[in-house]
Amino acid sequence: METKRALEGVKILDFTRVYSGPYCTMLLADLGAEVVKIEAQGRGDDSRNFYPVKNGVSGYFTYLNRGKKSITLNLKSEKGRQMALELAKWADVVVENFSAGTIGRLGLGYEDICKVNPRIVYASISGFGQSGPYSRKAAYDGIAQAMGGMVNLTGYPDQTPVKVGPAISDAATGVHAAVAILAALWHREHTGEGQYIDMSMMDTVFSFLENSVPIMTMMGINPERLGNGNPGSAPYNLYKCKDGMIMIATANNSLFTRLINVMGQPELIEDPRFATNPERKLHEHDIDPIVEAWTMQHDAAEIEKMLDAVGVPVAQIKTVEELIDDPQLNQRDMLVEHDIPGVGKVKYPGNPLKLQKTPPVTNRRAPLLGEDSEQILKDILHCSDEQIVELREEGIV
Amino acid sequence: METKRALEGVKILDFTRVYSGPYCTMLLADLGAEVVKIEAQGRGDDSRNFYPVKNGVSGYFTYLNRGKKSITLNLKSEKGRQMALELAKWADVVVENFSAGTIGRLGLGYEDICKVNPRIVYASISGFGQSGPYSRKAAYDGIAQAMGGMVNLTGYPDQTPVKVGPAISDAATGVHAAVAILAALWHREHTGEGQYIDMSMMDTVFSFLENSVPIMTMMGINPERLGNGNPGSAPYNLYKCKDGMIMIATANNSLFTRLINVMGQPELIEDPRFATNPERKLHEHDIDPIVEAWTMQHDAAEIEKMLDAVGVPVAQIKTVEELIDDPQLNQRDMLVEHDIPGVGKVKYPGNPLKLQKTPPVTNRRAPLLGEDSEQILKDILHCSDEQIVELREEGIV
């Protein structure tokens, strides 16, 4: 018996490339949507050449495109465009993340698709949105992180700011787009009405700034980066230990008392500088060295064990190599292995959407370029074998 | 005429506190879901005391709880528990983010709710998920970031790692939970079947690592943090300029050529070290100082203008204070102002889910503690005035 999937029957026409859009459609494909990815004829998604590449195969692409079908199309030809419109008739959802305005110039914008399928849910993802003074500005992840306020809030206070390593503005916008698409599908199911969705990476970064905006607008304080510290609590930091670093986070007297008991210094709570969380925050530069003098005497694993035992939040700084073998991630199906043609077995992150009756299906590897062209041409576009040969000869497919 | 909203009619019973859960239900409330937030009788959501606080009102809470209704309930009393079960009969969705196992001990876990409402979609959010070796481990955002691999990948290569400033593991898990809930609702609409969703902050952080996992599993390279650099491209960095810093990102010859033309050094492309993107990445330590020697001669705004004009990705490092007045964010309704009782007018981030026909509604301020208790007791639980007086006297509400 095949596993039931939540989005069984939802059809997505996917013009997305690289990261934000593909992350969105990967989440939906894992949940059971049928995703037909249109790739540039001859070349494919740019990320097919993105680092890491082994034997000509990109691990970047193969991570983010599992469970999708690939058809190549030359969208700059009128025949290719017409075929894309036919596919849009079949689809419930279109997703694209070209730079703002590009897909409209290809004759495949929302208005174009609406003419053939007025019920379509059509989501665009771009750096800054489809309109407004920045809409034509070029964007990569680092640009969106900087413009949305994330970079200035990350790093040590006495040093230059630093962007988040992985491209979180892409991933965050991708997952927000998935929320928007599912909400729009719900609306369509109940009213018959499709619509356009205009997602911006800068918007989503700005939406991810926690309490930073009210700190400014309520208190008049322009928030600054705090390293590994917390604006309201101490001790809450990254501390050196015998064999590396350890993160310890306390935010109230109960946790602090448990920490100093483990440290063998229960008397610290009687010091007026450390008697309450606000006092400790005020005297952070006094309490942090005391904690670090203790952590320096132990290995990270040892500290984690001692503090876990009493429920004090503590973490080792995990590297990716360690996470591949992590028992929690493995038990939760957060590592999946695909057999990739030309490369062999490769592990990828699983899907965090843990629906218990309709769990995400993550075992279908990413398609080769145009791997499903023939099937899609036959099943959805009803092409004959002769027509398919012709389309290939003309360089349309 | 009232604005149509996508999730009109969806009823959510919200046990969430602080950040991850409230971010999830805020997104859904803005889209039109009716969210009834249960807060601890007498005390409320812990984040009602979280920084920033002015005149006893938290900007942390009021940002994340707009558009929701608040009822207080003593969940440790049997009567309070029974009332929560009655509310769960009314609801389509339950969301909670207590530490793993806590709500089950209150007699309000998935099995308990299922007995009174078998069609419920029930989402739990926790640090590490409901089962597995870490499930009882204490979690704050920094802990989840460290355990999920984000901290080790953020910061400068020659310095200690640094967590992302804002608590992105909370926000990312909240928005992923919203995807899971909407997918489960879709499934229920088509099959009648509700289900349980088990979200983990560590899972979502791990899912946000871009290409880091395949770098390890395909190439055998344990990825390291790169500061503001990019693993595959150069020049791509944060550069000092006359009045601060500027981020410039090029990833191919077209962008690089445009950059060096603006710099007045078109001959650089003829230097074999800088002839291709892979060569430039290899000689990053040669090209970055050349770019910085140029940026140092100009103000950030001036550089942005010159590079925007030729389509080279460029960004100033925006502070929150600057973003409050940002023309793009303001044009896109990404700043909303609420009149908060006891505080006055405060601006918050808007909602990035830009559905065009059913736009998010963000103009309803967060509720006072228990502000909607009476209405909910009457309309949903059909209590009489006498019963309400009694419940208040008994400290249940």
Explain this structure:
The structure is a homodimer of 397-residue chains. With 397 residues, chain A is α/β, with parallel strands linked by helices. Chain A folds into two domains: 11-208 and 333-393, Crotonobetainyl-coa:carnitine coa-transferase, domain 1 (Rossmann fold), CATH 3.40.50; 236-321, formyl-coa transferase, domain 3. Chain A is built from 17 helices and 13 strands. In chain A, strands 5-2-1-6-7-8 form a six-stranded parallel sheet, sandwiched between helices. In chain A, a hairpin with a 2-residue loop joins β3 (53-54) and β4 (57-58). The radius of gyration of chain A is 25 Å and the shape is elongated. The mean pLDDT of chain A is 97. At the A-B interface, α2, α6, α7, β8 and α8 of A face α2, α6, α7, β8 and α8 of B.
